[in-house]
Design goal:
By secondary structure, the protein is mainly beta. Helices cover 0% and strands 67% of the residues. 2% of the residues are buried.
Length: 113
């Protein structure tokens, strides 16, 4: 039984830039601390693109570089994803979305994806 409690802090900085009515660029930064906020763990630096196919359907892809500090030293993880976003019918003031995403992670220590 693990008796250790670990509070973590993740902060997100996101922006989207509309290139047209159909294309959007996205940029994201996520610094993260663990060990009760005392250990700077990693930062996720991601950029991507979304393409609106219909008023309720979008597809997108993104790539991220994730420098990480571990007990064995610093490593750099690379991530990519592809996704489909579907906007559902409105529920009052809410516009729910469903996101299906396929992620890949790459670490040199693994030798492959």
């Amino acid at each position: 039984i693990v008796d250790d409690q670990d509070a973590q802090l993740w902060v997100q900085f996101n922006t989207q830039v509309a290139l047209s009515t159909r294309w959007t660029l996205l940029f994201e930064g996520q610094p993260r601390w663990n060990q009760n906020f005392t250990h700077y763990d990693q930062v996720v630096l991601r950029t991507g693109v979304n393409r609106r196919l219909t008023p309720t359907l979008q597809v997108g892809a993104a790539y991220a570089v994730v420098p990480r500090r571990t007990i064995v030293g610093s490593i750099v993880e690379h991530q990519s994803y592809q996704q489909v976003l579907v906007t559902l019918p409105r529920l009052g003031k809410w516009s729910p979305q469903v996101r299906v995403r396929e992620d890949q992670r790459f670490l040199a220590q693994w030798g492959d994806a």
